[in-house]
Amino acid sequence: MMKFYLVDVKDINSNIPRSNFSEADLDNLAEIILESGGIIRPLVLKPTDAENYTVIDGHFEYYAALKAKEKNPRKGEMVNAFVISPKNEDILLKQVAAFREFNYSNTIENITSTGTEKSEIRLEKHELSLIDKQINELRVELAQEKQERQKLYEYIKSLETQIPKQITPLEAFNSLNVLELTFRLRTAGFTDKKSVQVAETIEKVRKKKSFESLKDVIERVTITSGKKQVKGISGDKMVDIIDSWSRLVFK
Length: 251
Fold this sequence. Notes:
There is one protein chain. By secondary structure, this protein is an alpha/beta fold. Among the domains are: 2-84, Alpha-Beta Complex (Conserved hypothetical protein from pyrococcus furiosus pfu- 392566-001, ParB domain); 169-245, no CATH class. The protein is 61% helix and 14% strand. It contains eight helices and seven strands. The chain has helices at 23-36, 59-71, 89-162, 169-175, 178-187, 192-208, 214-220, 235-245, and strands at 2-8, 12-13, 43-47, 53-57, 78-84, 222-225, 228-231. The strands form two sheets. It has a five-stranded mixed β-sheet with strand order 1-5-3-4-2. A two-stranded antiparallel sheet has the order 6-7. The N and C termini lie far apart (119 Å). The model has no long low-confidence stretch (mean pLDDT 80).
């Protein structure tokens, strides 16, 4: 059977090196042991002779208790321990081994769980990083598209300024020069000679006063035909002008 004792730390040894444990962790537990007045989890010891023991289970606790004794020899002198009886050693060692295996499995499970959580966190961070990258790429694309649209808009506006504006026949009679008027009159069916005559007359007449209407053009534009003055543009010809000029674009 096992018996519960208070054992002096100086009488205990461990076959596991102290270097296997973090000094920071040992120091932290040593402080807790001193504050609480002892270790809550008893060591499992095996007697090596009448006064000395070796640790079977609780090596970390043993070294922490040893650290506590180094810090405060009076408070850290004694530790709680179960001492294995030699005749029950085999069965008790099996129990210790079973507890170790159970604790190891739980530790592995916790580590695996923690590792999985960390992996999930890393995965989430990676996914967020990819999303941020995609958002930034979209922002760049949108900015580029905006610039392209602006360039296209400016190009269209520049083309619009270059597109000749269509003007009405009355505006043409009041603004086009003789050469332009001659060409336009030809498109309406005037002969070359008459086109020049009418165009020159229009330029002379409008210098005195701009035409107020197409009827005004018909009445005021007269040319010499033989010994008499006749209308340079008849009513029917004005209809032809309106029809042909409506299909032309004037600057």
